UniProtKB/TrEMBL annotation:
Residue numbers binding Ca(2+): 198, 331, 334
GO molecular function, one term: metal ion binding
Family: Belongs to the peptidase S45 family.
Protein name: Penicillin amidase
Pfam families for this protein: Penicil_amidase
GO BP terms in the entry: antibiotic biosynthetic process
Annotated InterPro entries: Ntn_hydrolases_N, Pen/GL7ACA/AHL_acylase, Penicillin_amidase_A-knob, Penicillin_amidase_dom1, Penicillin_amidase_N_B-knob, S45
Superkingdom of source: Bacteria
Species of provenance: Plasticicumulans lactativorans
Length: 808
């Protein structure tokens, strides 16, 4: 029989089989990739039976993926909150609890060990467990319900975990109530930071005398410097140099982490009821620090911003009241130089004689490396900071210990926060705050009855009258006069109700007048933002939410506006400087993203800072280089002879401020020309001033950072109402913004369901989700989402309804 000419040859059959096999592999790989990318995403509709629920719960996802939780009990409402937090933010929650517990190196390797050592030493997780034991039964029950909801999602989700778990190999452990309390304490840590300024003063005292130190770190404008000891003389008098200068970088708490809030009475609003605005300023991250949600159950009806991992409504409103927060910046951390007893190893000197250190051992597990044992010592003041890092340079006979209010075992801040949404009026609201310990916050309040108020709850240490350091620098731990003697009584904390002017605003600035009898801090934020808010409130007799939205968007820098008259008469050295200065002469200080003037100004101030104090600070300059608006203004105005900072002490000539302004402008424009071209008209603040939302940990992995982190150009600076702080000491990105308005909130008590919110990224923490970054554009444009508790509003266009049902 002759062969069939139409039949394929064996070679063709083999090629066809290979192609079919490759096609199957490609399709399988595509399916696996789709499963990995889409599998972790939660369902927004359907029915799920879950153990731990007492009754059915409905979760309506509105058009922006904000969950509206309707439950038949408070227990089930918080169970569902844990469930939706885990649905959208499980990796963020995993990282947050690992940070608080000092267990990040287990997930990402040895690079996280310094942070783990520090937080294990502080004992944040231990403090969280102690606080948990001091909560009442109702608060414990909510934490248990929330943890059960988180764990229901972890154990019941049928698909893969989010990509970060796959990449790191981490498996989430069951969520515990102490994980939630730990993150509350880490937020307090983020908003404290006085200890870093103490270390800075300690180091600077080796280069600057007391007068110079008080000028470089000036008091609040209008205040006299505190009558404190001569730091350098004090440390020399200890009989041994307590600190040697070294290149070790210091952790730093920059300006710009804080917030704005303001409230007006009905007499100052177009609606006839109070209006309230808030925008917390925090480090920008992706996903956002905030998660928007609405909770509804018998006795509970609240909407606003939560922190994933924490069953609390931090800022928001109920049917009757609304509240917003800014950081008070109290001095709640003190460092103590503890002197070792040379005759008795393992002892340190106390006012009543030698005492033994209390020791505990911690085991740190490290991905890809051997375990590490950490021996932690504690004194009567608190934990001894680990050797190296920020404590590098201490003489062998000394250690540094920290006292911090959040380590007190009776810290019941969580309990206070849980009860705030249950208050129906001012008196009940204030009563809930008696348990509030840390971080001290400036809380503005409004209610449907027309009242507005302000209170700053929190534990503020009392210091003795003969304490001549006042928490500004590390104190001799063996001297009892530096010990805390208690806390400011709750009833003496700053507060106001229905002030005559019908408005209250705070922006981390000084909140007490000279007659206030207690010391809170010497490190209030400069008043620039607060003054601008006051100007805008005074500009209209009555306001609307649209007016408040324009205030949120305001990027006029009062600090720049006040310096410009001095800068405009600078003698220029070259044509480029002349063209740049000519632009600034027509500029009003508005930090508009699309204009060149903000970039010229920021670069000029950066260069001027180097010329003003690099010579005095020497090896400490890079650690202390920052946006120092009040110091710069004082020097250029020659307040109390401060223009002497303009002299470069490393040269034989005596330079004045005119010389340094001219030289700094030339330095700045030359740098900008190299970076952005030779035409100032083509420069844009937006080209350099990009807000970066950092992903943990993938922003540190070059191949992944471009996909996971978010970047968007913005206007503003550290002193504008619409805050966007840059870091002048960052050589690679000196104008990149990493702190800003992490959330914005506007509420009219005449129509609370017309409330407006926005956070910086999106509801989802999963990169493949369409809700990972869908808020970013609106956030940049200072636009908002509607946040209503009316079912007819949030059900219109809803993405779906998920029903959680008790287990069969």
């Amino acid at each position: 029989m002759s062969p069939n000419p139409a039949a394929p040859s064996p070679a063709r059959r083999r090629r066809r089989s290979v192609l079919y096999g490759l096609l199957v592999l490609v399709l399988a790989a595509a399916g696996a990739l789709a499963w990995l990318l889409r599998g972790p995403l939660p369902a927004y509709a359907g029915r799920v039976h879950l153990a731990g629920l007492a009754g059915p719960v409905e979760i309506v996802r509105d058009r922006n993926a904000v969950p509206h939780i309707r439950a038949r009990s408070v227990h089930d409402a918080y169970f569902a909150l844990g469930y939706v937090h885990a649905q959208d933010r499980l990796w963020q929650m995993e990282m947050n609890r690992r940070i608080a517990a000092g267990r990040v190196a287990e997930a990402v390797g040895p690079g996280a060990l310094p942070t783990d050592r520090f937080l294990r030493t502080l004992g944040v997780r231990r403090a969280a467990q102690a606080s948990l034991a001091n909560l009442d039964a109702d608060a414990r029950a909510v934490l248990d319900a929330y943890a059960a909801g988180v764990n229901a999602w972890i154990s019941g989700h049928p698909g893969p975990l989010p990509l970060e778990f796959l990449a790191t190999g981490v498996r989430p452990e069951p969520w515990e109530p102490a994980d939630s309390i730990g993150w509350v304490k880490m937020m307090a840590w983020d908003l404290a930071g006085n200890w870093t300024e103490e270390l800075l003063r300690l180091r600077l005292s080796m280069r600057l005398d007391t007068r110079q130190l008080q000028e470089f770190l000036p008091p609040y404008p209008g205040d006299a410097p505190l009558p404190v000891a001569d730091f350098a003389a004090l440390y020399r008098s200890l009989g041994a140099q307590a600190l040697a200068l070294g290149p070790t970088p210091l952790p730093h708490t920059p300006e710009g982490i804080g917030s704005n809030n303001w409230v007006v009475a009905g007499s100052r609003s177009a609606s006839g009821k109070p209006l309230l605005a808030n925008d917390p300023h925090l480090g920008l991250t992706v996903p956002s620090t905030w998660y928007l949600v609405h909770l509804e159950a018998p006795g509970l009806r609240v909407i606003g911003g939560t922190l994933p991992g924490v069953p609390l409504m931090i800022v928001g409103r109920t049917e009757r009241i609304a509240w917003g927060m800014t950081n008070t910046k109290p001095d709640t951390q003190d460092l103590y130089l503890e002197r070792l007893d040379p005759a008795r190893p393992g002892y340190y000197q106390a006012p009543d004689g030698p005492r033994p250190f209390v020791e505990r051992r911690e085991v740190l597990h490290v991905k890809g490396a051997a375990d590490e044992e950490l021996v932690v010592r504690e004194t009567r003041h608190g934990p001894v900071l680990p050797a190296g890092g920020s404590t590098a340079g201490l003489s062998p006979g000394y250690v540094l210990a920290m006292r911090w209010t959040a380590l007190d075992p009776d810290d019941r801040t969580y309990q206070a926060g849980l009860r705030m949404p249950l208050a129906r009026n001012w008196d009940e609201f204030v009563a809930t705050l008696r348990d509030y310990h840390t971080p001290q916050q400036n809380i503005v309040y409004a209610d449907v009855d027309g009242h507005i108020g302000f209170i700053a709850p929190g534990r503020v240490p009392l210091r003795r009258p003969d304490n001549d350091l006042m928490g500004l620098a590390p104190a001799p731990g063996w001297d009892a006069r530096y010990d805390w003697t208690g806390y400011v009584p709750f009833d003496a904390l700053p507060r106001r109700l229905d002030p005559p002017g019908g408005e209250i605003h705070t922006a981390n600035d000084k909140i007490v007048d000279p007659a206030y009898p207690y010391y809170i801090t010497a490190e209030w934020a400069p008043p620039y933002r607060s003054r601008r808010i006051g100007e805008l409130l005074a500009a209209r007799p009555r306001h609307t939410l649209d007016d408040f939205a324009r205030m949120h968007a305001d990027v006029l820098s009062v600090q720049a506006r006040e310096l410009l008259p001095r800068l405009r008469y600078t003698v220029t050295r070259d044509a480029l400087s002349s063209e740049a200065l000519e632009r600034l002469q027509r500029w009003d200080g508005t930090m508009d993203a699309e204009r060149p003037e903000p970039l010229i100004y920021a670069a000029w101030m950066r260069a001027l800072g180097r010329r003003l104090y690099a010579d005095e600070l020497g090896p400490l300059f890079e650690q202390a280089w920052d946006i120092r608006g009040v110091f710069t203004a004082n020097v250029l105005a020659d307040r109390d002879g401060q223009a002497r900072w303009c002299d470069d002490i490393t040269t034989p000539a005596v330079e004045d401020c005119d010389f340094q302004l001219s030289a700094a402008l030339a330095d700045a424009v030359a740098e900008l020309a190299r970076q952005y071209g030779p035409q100032p008209a083509a420069w844009r603040w937006a080209d350099a001033h990009v807000a970066r939302a950092e992903h943990r940990p993938f922003s540190r992995v070059p191949l992944l950072a471009d996909w996971f982190e978010l970047n968007v150009p913005v206007g503003g600076d550290v002193y504008t109402v619409n805050v966007a702080r840059h870091h002048v000491a960052d050589a690679a990105h000196p104008y990149r913004s990493t702190q800003g308005a992490s959330l914005r909130m506007l509420i009219d008590l005449a129509d609370p369901d017309a409330s407006r919110f926005i956070q910086a990224t999106g509801q989802s923490g999963q990169r493949p989700s369409p809700h990972y970054a869908d808020f970013l554009g609106a956030w940049r444009r200072v636009e908002y989402l509607p946040m209503s508790m009316r079912a007819a509003d949030y059900e219109t266009g809803a993405l779906g309804t998920l029903k959680l049902l008790p287990a069969r």
